[in-house]
Amino acid sequence: MFLSYRGSRTTDRPSVLYIMFLSYRGSRTTDRPSEGSYIGNIETGTSLPSYVAKTKDTIRTNHVQGDMRFPAGLGIKMEHVQTVLAIPILQEDSGVLGVIELYRQFSTDSFTQEDEEVTATLLVWADVCVEYVQMYNSMMRQRKLNDFLLAVTKSIFQDIVSMDTVIMKIMNYAKKLVNADRASLFLLDTKTTELYARIFDTGKEHVPQKEIRFPMDKGVAGHVASTGQVLNITDAYNDGRFNREVDMQTGYRTKSILCMPIYIRGSIIGVVQMVNKKEGTFTMADEESFETFAIYCGLALHHAKLYDKIRRSEQKYKVALEVLSYHAQCTDDEYKIIKSTPFPDNIPGIIDYEFSPWDVEDNRKCLYVLYMMKDIFSMATKYDLDDMIRFTMTVKKNYRNVPYHNWAHAFSVAHAVYTVIKTTKHSFSPVECLALYVACLCHDLDHRGKTNAFMVKSASPLAAIYSTSTMEHHHFNHTVTILQNEGHNIFKHLTSDQYKQILGDIRQCILATDLALFFGNRARLQEVSDKNEFSWDDSEHRHVLMAISMTACDLCSMYKPWDVQLQVVNVIMEEFWLQGDEEKSQGLTPMPMMDRDKKDELPHLEVGFLVGICLPCYELMAQVLPNTKPMVDGAVSNLKKWKYLAENKLTVDQLPPEQCVKQLEYKTSENIQDSSETNKQTEEEESEEQNKLDAKAENKDEQTEESKMESVEENKNKSIDNPSEKGSLLTDVRSESSVLVHSDNDNNLTERDNT
């Protein structure tokens, strides 16, 4: 680039001053279209400026034309030059920034040593000025590039709608960046090793056309994709890699090309090709700017591909969900069967705590569910019976055929909470009652018969979605999915606020069946109850009681009559053992309660489970809702039998006959009495021993026996009726039972309920 000024032609000062600046990278000079400008190669050039730039020597001469060191002359077309002074402009690192030429056209006076020294001194300041100008220009270029890239980032990443949209934006911004006439973007298909494109720049707009493909090693783009080399071609028709067929078909003439690979994670994913710079040819500065831009292109294309995959996955998911929903919903025939079956007006014993839901025939369970649901709905809002039938039948259909966590279990838990709602003097709102019932009915939807820990250990997709309470979150989401099916929204008559409230309550209730949350809920409610601060007006108190109620109802089999409870326990253990068998097949060591080979430890496990989980839960329920005392009574009765089996190392089949069970219950009850009755009991025992020595007092012994039975029952009732009194009914039984439970049973308790 040349900079000139003209002065007086009669003075000794040079009439014309030319300064030539070199390009920073490479050996080409930067061009400037002005009269007398010169462009040449520094290494091969034969002009005076090229010689000075190459040798860094200062030249003073009166015979430029005849000097063999620079046969090409001054580098400018000046016919009357008489004498010349050429001095290199050096940088701090001894590099050449440029060359200054001073010459006289009409004066024959030679440049002197003094002229050379004055010029060199001035050049020191000129060098500083030029360096600062270059720094300023560089900073301004970088700032413009940063602003440009920021605009690119905002535009592309804020509007990733499809791959085609991203490609069109990249092509538009690429043309603006290097001032090109047209642009092309080719993506790499790694499976077929081909380059392909479906968006083409016609000069006016980007038109999606039929996709074209060509081998990865063909043409300019193929060469760049194969080698990763940047190509800056100034004359396309003189380059053997250029394919002229496209120009011949379109009538467009390609002159210059800038082609660069696009990387992501070190691999080439595509090629961007710029065609015909509008002014001149593509420069090194264009290459540097476009190299930075290509990084953003790679990120944008990578995210666009991910977006396309996600979008396709969503569509596949919707299709799969539609298919599964169709097959998972109750059919019209199933609906008509239930619809045509007469609904019972009254079900005897339905609100008894000893009622056995497992004895109800399977084809009658839905009728019982609808009977209870209609009763609870009538307290809250009006309902659509058709929606209620479809919802109930679909819920039944979405329980898997596993040994325990199936439709029968859901029915038993729903019945348990219905019993609590109907028999206790609670102050739950009608919507909360409805939430409790529906949550119990749906709390194990799509259960796979495996624990949360197993789901995590086996890297289940559900465990990847839900890091905590894995199955419980799935049960709730499945419930919402069923409600969203057409003709299944049983809550459609609720207001917007009520609908939002009931879904939130159902979620909290279902999550509460995870025993990991039970201990925290129990501690909060116990603290409030012990301080006599429980208030039905406090929503937090009601919600924590709802959570405890969910746990109590989920474990309802543990307070049922012995035969019913024993039957359900066997089913539960069969599901546990199936998981243990699967863990063994995978080379894992199952927990003792999951190990079929350790089934003889069942009485110990049941004692620990009743003492550590069930009874504390039932007892707390009885403190707040005294009418739930039958839960405690039933659990205590079953605990006596399990404790006897554990103490005597007997199996269930070895339990004494019914005639001996009463004696067993009496003897076991002596160990469960309240600590406040210990002294009284001791005196009675001593009296009994004394009477046994008297052969004449056999009738009196029998009366004492009956008196003790009545005393024990009275003490039990007294303890339950006044649960806040210290020395609970369960104190002695827990302390004595602790020696029967293996050291690893604490983990077993949690694992069991999580199933």
From TrEMBL:
Region (Disordered) residue spans: 667-755
Residue ranges of every copy of the PDEase domain listed in the record: 330-649
Cofactor field: a divalent metal cation
Binding site for Zn(2+) 1: H409, H443, D444, D554
The protein, known as: Phosphodiesterase
Active-site residues, Swiss-Prot/TrEMBL: H405 (proton donor)
Family per record: Belongs to the cyclic nucleotide phosphodiesterase family.
Cofactor note text: Binds 2 divalent metal cations per subunit. Site 1 may preferentially bind zinc ions, while site 2 has a preference for magnesium and/or manganese ions.
Source organism superkingdom: Eukaryota
Enzyme Commission code: 3.1.4.-
Sorted UniProt keywords: cGMP, Hydrolase, Metal-binding
Residues annotated as binding Zn(2+) 2: D444
GO BP of this protein: signal transduction
SMART domains to which the protein is assigned, alphabetical: GAF, HDc
